[in-house]
Structure formats: C-alpha cells, structure tokens
Amino acid sequence: MNLEFIESGPALLVSNTKDVLVLSDLHLGIESDLARHGIHFKSRSRQRQQKAIQCIRETNPDIVLLLGDVKHSIPQTTWQEYRELPDLLSSLRGLSRLMVMPGNHDPGIERFLNEGELLPKEGALVDGTGYLHGHTYPDPSLQGHLLICGHHHPLVCLMDDVGCSLRAPAYLFAQIRDECFTRGKGPDSVPTGCDTVDCDTVDCEQPGPQSLFSGGKKKNKGTRRKKKIPGPASAETDTFCETGPGLSVHEGMSWPEPPEGTMPGEHQRSGTRVLFMPAFNELSGFDVLKIVRSPTSPLSRYMDRLSCEIYLADGTYIGPLSAVEEHDIG
C-alpha cells in the first residue's frame, strides 16, 4: 500500500490494487452560513472546484472518494448549495469514478448523487482500506484496518523561540482502542462475512507485516510525498468494494516490531489505526491538541494518545503529540 500526500489539496492518494484519491470536508456553501453570522465575502467554491480538478489530473486516480461534509448547511440545503453542488459533482465524476461518504453536514446529499455513489455513514472498506467521515461509531467490520477519517479538520500550531508561528493543515495518526467497536454493540453484531452487493473480487497483493509508514529516506516529488507499505504477495484474494451498503471483510493485518531507526511510535503500530485528514476547505481547521484533549467523536474519544503522531499536508513528519505540546501557543 502507498500513501501519497498531495499538499495542493490537501488530499491523499491511497494506492493498493486501485488508486483512490481522498478529499475530505469540502463544506461547499460555507459562505452562506458565515453570511448569516455577519461575515460576508464572495463564494470560493469555484476555486475549490478547480483545485479538486487539479488534484485529480495530477494523480489520475481510479476513484475519487469524498470523505463527508461535501456541503455545509444543516439541516436544510441552501440556495448556494443547490446552485453549486451539481456542477461540482458533475465535474468530478467526469474525470473519475465518484464515491461519497456522507458526513454530519450532508443531509439530503443523496439527491445530488447517482446510483451507487453513496457509501454507508458507518464506514466502508474500499480496496482494503477503511473509510468513514468520523461522526459516528465505525462499523465493527472496520476493526483491524487502517481507517481514513475526516470530520475533525486537524491543523497544527507551532511557535519557535523568537515568536514565529506556523499554523497549517495536518494529519493526525493514532491507534484506536478496541472499545470503539464494541460500545453499544453486542458481540453478535460483528459481521462474519461479506454481504456487499455488486462487488468485484480481484487477485491482489496483501500488505505484509510492515509499519504504516515505512522507515528510511523520505522522497518528495513536488507537492506529493509518498509513503510505501511494502509487502509480499499473498495467495489470498481480497474484495474490492464497488458499491452498496455492505462491507467486504478480511482479517486485520499484524504488525511486528520495526527495525532500529524508525520514527517515534513505530513500535505501537498494531491493530486498528486511524489517519485523520485535514479539511479541503481552507476556512476549516481545529488544533490537533484540542482534538486530543477535548474529543467530540467516537474515534477521537477512543484513540490512544501515546500513539498520536503529526504530519503536515505534504507528508513532513512533525513528531509525536508530545513534540507539538512543547510548542503549545494556547
């Protein structure tokens, strides 16, 4: 599995047997909401649409996955969203296959989507990786997988000794405790097989026993930084979930002790891991320290604080959470 960080998004390209470009939290129509609170400026939706198109053309993915909060207004749909959503979605599906994970700001989004584009809000496995917006408890079938999550809009705030500060979109990586998958759910509710409809079964290489981001020299190609998870080919077959409300299920990956010289926290990478994505909308952001200290979602409440690590939008490794806490500017 490869993860490529697209700084110009921010966006994430997840590559296994398919290339999946992930965009999270576009919040189309946020300007209308700000106007109701006395903050008035011209819509930037056209610029965000062009930025999304640029990311697609740069990466040429098999799938574009919008990871929730495509629109902004709740519970109603505003005139701005009615006017701008159809053109945005049409332009994206004209370049690649489109999938949409509904977020808490997306009531009514289904009226703008074609059949098979809407994924279940509790999450879905697509080409071996779990995806969910993050405002709900994850489906038990996602346990043991790497989860890509939106909703939290992480950004990092740093300050040096002379007072210069950095405030930038960031990725927050952490382990998730198993309780997140059992709270309010009995053991009988855990699925034992795939009930996904319209799935294509393909031969693929399963990721081997490696850490999430492999150690060694980092490679940077322009605004794209790739992290590769190498692994031997497997005789098993995986299920690529094409559409539908079900989940394809296979056994979770195991991760051994990494070699010396790997990044801090590598020894804790096992079980279910989550990568919180920054918002695509440049007006949305929430300090990673507040996400950890004042959790507001099931995933953030059950993440292991000691395993938390921070990455910038281009994939630059900032360090564990403790390194960011040293630069806490309040």
Jot down its keywords.
9-stranded mixed β-sheet; 7-stranded mixed β-sheet; about 25% strand; alpha/beta; single chain; about 325 residues; 6 helices
Distance between the termini: 37 Å
Shape: globular
Structural class: alpha/beta
Low-confidence stretches: 186-222, 229-269
Largest sheet composition: 9 strands, mixed
Strand residues, percent: 15-25%
The secondary-structure element order is EEEHHEHEEEEEEEEEEEEHHEEH
Q: What is the number of independent domains? A: 1
Helical content class: 10-25%
Task: Please compute the radius of gyration using only Cα atoms.
Answer: 19 Å
Q: What is the average of the pLDDT values?
A: 75
Extended strand count: 18
Number of helices: 6
Protein described:
- It is a single chain.
- The chain has 330 residues and is an alpha/beta fold.
- It has one domain (2-325).
- The chain has six helices and 18 strands.
- It has helices spanning 30-36, 45-59, 79-93, 288-293, 298-301, 321-325, and strands at residues 2-6, 11-15, 19-23, 63-66, 97-100, 124-126, 129-132, 146-149, 154-159, 165-175, 200-203, 220-221, 224-228, 237-240, 273-276, 286-287, 309-312, 317-320.
- The two termini are 37 Å apart.
